[in-house]
Amino acid sequence: MGLYALGEQGAFSKLEEGYSMEMLLAYDRLGDVLTLVKEYTNMILEQGGDDVRECLNAQHLNDELADIREKYALPTGRLYLLLVDSRIAGCVGLTRNDDSYCEIKRLYVRPEYRGQHLSHILISRIVEDAKGLGYKHMRLDTFPFMDNAIKLYQKYGFYYI
After folding, report:
1. What residue spans define the domains of the chain?
2. What does the alpha-carbon distance between residue 102 and residue 139 come to, in Å, rounded to a whole number?
3. Which of 1, 41, 88, 161 has the smallest CB count inside 10 Å?
4. Cα–Cα distance between 100 and 72 in angstroms, integer?
5. How far apart are CA 53 and CA 30, in angstroms?
6. Model-level pTM?
7. pLDDT number for residue 6
């Protein structure tokens, strides 16, 4: 697994027109978030196998999901759902690690919504929120086989550490 940090500049993308979109805080829809995280987990387990399983266990994913409201709690964290035409398309979370740095977690867009720049919208929002909350540093982790995710993060100024 690679760990990435946010550099000085970030790239931003505009949403394509043609559909309605809504980003909402997900604290009243935790079941929907859990469904997305399970889809994401199944996807990366299919791609990465036992190495991914070991990593998720080391990260205590089951504990995180059991206490998801607290893990991403306001005011220092965030948890969003992205809806397209009132259907759940993706999610992203932000957790506080200490006063100066936070971590992006669980960025996921369902396969049928990929290629529409929705991941850009999610990451733009979470980066903007982190800056607004006064975090000086942002980190995230990803797996080496997730080439598209790595390219996205690099567009936003994240670099490998």
Report:
1. 2-160
2. 6
3. 161
4. 16
5. 23
6. 0.85
7. 54
